[in-house]
Amino acid sequence: MPVDVHAADEQSEHAVEVARWSRLAGSVLEAEGVTADAEVSLLFVDEATIAALNERFLGRSGPTDVLAFPIDDEDEPGGRTPDRGTPGPVSAEPEPEPPRLVGDVVICPAVATRNAADHGVDTDDEVALLVVHGILHLLGMDHEDDEEAERMERRERELLARFHRSA
Length: 167
Hints:
Blueprint: E1 4-9, H1 18-31, E2 38-44, H2 47-58, E3 66-70, E4 100-107, H3 109-119, H4 123-138, H5 146-163
Parallel strand pairs: 1-2, 2-4
Antiparallel strand pairs: 3-4
Helix pairs in contact: 1-4, 3-4, 4-5
């Protein structure tokens, strides 16, 4: 089963093409090797919401453009699981594996619009960059040092060139 991107527009200040950005996120995930049954959420929120998330999870005040919240996989199920290593009835059919929860990407279109003007690009290009940037964070990429930042920026450019206008 392919990657499932659950996208929602939870703000009303800026028009957002939810389906378009969902397709871009799915394409990036698949290009990065996430092809198994996996789920990602992509949320578009207002400045107050992203500012509250930024404060709560990063300890930074004010709104930001994008936040990524990876979900770590649990290797083994906790507690007892029916039909696993215990005597008694065993199902002939294996239980389906639950989808891998990759994480959540939260984008603020209001901040993206301001940043687009500052960067001399249109808002679509800025939002596309934020979608790709957020997905790469979910998959473990970062920009804490110069080498990591260059590697992440290079991959962003490659993915945007491949998928942005076709998404």
